[in-house]
Amino acid sequence: MSTLNEQLYIDAVVVKGTKRIFSVKIDQEATPEEKQQGVGWTALDLSLINVRFRVLGSAEGNGIILLEKIITQSSDEDTIGTIADPTSGEFTFTITVEDTEKLGLGSFPITIELLDVQTGEVIHTLTEGGIANAEFNKITVVRV
After folding, report:
1. How far is it, in rounded angstroms, from Cα 144 to Cα 135?
2. Which CATH number fits domain 11-142: 2.60.40.10, 3.30.1390.20, 3.40.50.300, 2.20.130.10?
3. pLDDT of 73-104, one tens digit each?
4. Which runs of E-coded beta strand occur in 10-130?
5. What are the residue ranges spanned by the domains of the chain?
């Protein structure tokens, strides 16, 4: 059983031809000691974690990957996203002007996975499971 707060649901919108930076915060269940002090959730320390952000062509399990970004503590926030303060549990992902041109208009499923910083192995998939309810985490590119 996971101790991460899996209530993560992303329904992001970006205007075609613009850049947008999105922020995500991940919490984990508090330790027994913290619970005794009335704390329910704490920030997940991302110091030893990278984040893989993918935009998919389909919500099906074998959908093609239209866009992939590996977000690290040293990645460029303007083009990829970054983990600026790992102990806060927060990271950003960036959709650039070029990304919106590549994707075109429409809604696209996304996945966010936590990766071991040393091995690159998947530790946890944060955006899994919404398909059963005919919902998926997504990014929508619109025209104004």
Report:
1. 25
2. 2.60.40.10
3. 999 999 999 999 999 999 999 999 999 999 99
4. 11-15, 20-25, 27-29, 41-43, 49-56, 65-71, 90-95, 106-116, 122-125
5. 11-142
Reference 116, options 80, 77, 70; nearest CA is: 70
The residues, any chain, with a CB within 8 Å of residue 59's CB and separated by 6 or more, are: 109, 131, 136
Rounded Cα–Cα distance for residues 16 and 124 (Å): 31
| Residue-wise pLDDT tens digits, 100-133 | 999 999 999 898 999 999 999 999 888 765 545 5
Structure tokens at 40: 């329910």
Q: What is the pTM of this model?
A: 0.85
The residues near 96 (Cβ < 8 Å, ≥ 6 apart) are 19, 78, 79
At residue 36, the 3 state secondary structure works out as helix
Q: How far is CA 87 from the centre of its chain?
A: 16
